[in-house]
Specification:
With 228 residues, the protein is of the alpha/beta class. The protein is 40% helix and 22% strand. A five-stranded parallel β-sheet has the order 2-1-3-4-5, sandwiched between helices. The chain has a four-stranded antiparallel β-sheet with strand order 6-7-8-9, with no helix packed on it.
């Protein structure tokens, strides 16, 4: 059964959403304020979807989304009475997957929940992926050679960048897309920071880093990744 975390301070709305999600077969954990949810999101957790009200006591939904994105790529759906374009864009830039304006139709909410959960399942990467002759484990963050020897342990951001390249394999990924996905509204790094990640990947995966077969630079745009 799919597990959903709901953070909504308005009790009647929280109870209504919880009841209808449970009637649809979901397991729901509901929280009334941002502080309780923040304590949950600062450590490893497992949900198939997180639904966040934007305006919450103690920690806003935006604050919670930032914390979630430090640890997980779980789908996030914002609920908010603020429905301007700038509000929606701000939420999506933080890493949310969708944004629903209050008051909303219950059927629309349930449909968005279904789409987000089904899309997440379809897009999940296997625990281990092959890049050239090396195996990357996205659970342990480890890279091993064909003999099973440990070569490198990635940082969280390195793994996030690899996951983005895997998702977009064969397509050009712009620098802006990388910045939005990995850094969001945090302090924006220089373009050289991204170059350094690519150089590190080439040293690790490429037989000849000066003539890459996996991590290509597309001048003036960004990068393209191919596993083989």
């Amino acid at each position: 059964m799919h597990r959903i975390c709901l953070v909504e301070d308005e009790q009647s709305l929280r109870d209504m959403i919880t009841l209808n999600l449970e009637l649809d077969g979901y397991v729901v954990e509901a929280y009334a304020d941002g502080a309780s949810a923040n304590a949950l999101f600062t450590k490893p957790f497992h949900f198939d979807l997180v639904i966040l009200d934007v305006m919450l006591p103690h920690f806003s939904g935006f604050d919670l989304c930032k914390e979630i994105r430090k640890h997980s790529s779980v789908p996030v759906l914002f609920l908010s009475a603020k429905g301007t374009t700038s509000d929606r864009v701000a939420g999506l830039k933080l890493g949310a997957n969708d944004y629903l304006v209050k008051p909303f139709d219950l059927e629309e909410l349930l449909l968005k929940v279904q789409i987000l959960i089904n899309g997440s399942i379809q897009n999940e990467q296997p625990t281990a992926q092959q890049i050239g002759k090396y195996q990357v484990n996205f659970t342990t963050f480890e890279v091993r050679d064909p003999q099973g020897h440990l070569l490198h342990t990635f940082t969280k951001r390195e793994v996030q960048l690899l996951e983005l390249f895997m998702e977009k394999e064969g397509k050009v990924v712009s620098r802006n897309e990388i910045l939005d996905r990995l850094w969001g509204a945090e302090q924006i790094p220089t373009s050289r920071t991204i170059d350094n990640y690519i150089l590190a990947f080439r040293k690790l995966f490429e037989p000849d880093p000066k003539n890459p077969q996996h991590f290509y630079s597309i001048r003036g745009v960004g990068y393209k990744f191919l596993r083989e």
